[in-house]
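Issue 218. Parser rejects a valid record. Input:
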Amino acid sequence: MKDLFGKAMFDFQTNNSPEDIITETSISEEDEMSVEYLFRSYNEMPKLEQKALQLTFGKTLDVGCGAGSHSLSLQKDRNLEVTSIDISEKAIETCKLRGLKNVKVQNILDFEGEKFDTILLLMNGTGIFGKLHNCNKYLSKLKSLLKKDGQILIDSSDIIYMFDEDEDGGKWIPSENNYYGELVFNISYKGVKEEPFDWLYLDYNTLQNAAVANGLKCELILEGEHYDYLARLTV
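Output the parser choked on:
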């Protein structure tokens, strides 16, 4: 990967002529995403994210922290001990410049040696699973990092609304998809294209089934305004 998301964040943080990120998926046209959005304050966050931060307690792991906005809010406003991880080196450099104390370039599947009261996966936290068949691998790993009364707070969206309806009111979903929430993402930044990557949107029932299969209780905390939701997983 060329770490274009990370480069965009780093450019924004260092005032190095940041530009919008161009995103495109296997089911949607090109769209522009402002890098500034990744640097939002608590008051600028959607209600789902604010609710997740309100529910966060104790020693916290922020998975796929990006520019670190969630971690920063918890560290500064709540004085919580937060570990922030991302696979993007430039994102982690950005987090350090923003004042986050405990950050590391790390894939969650390789994380070892600590347990947490709260694990956060926000901004479509199920995305990093990539494919539906990876759910067990990721949920099992996350469960292993929880303290006895710990919680995983994760958000996603049911993107069934993006598919056309047939005459009977059913949804027309291309047959090459094993599950309609499995997308391929393409992004470009400053004229450079990233390698395509898999990104998973999970409807709540599918997440709940996967959680139960891994010995986790799944609770719907809040539904957003656009088919999105926040869930809490506990042992």
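Fixed in the parser; the record now loads. The longest helix spans residues 4-13.
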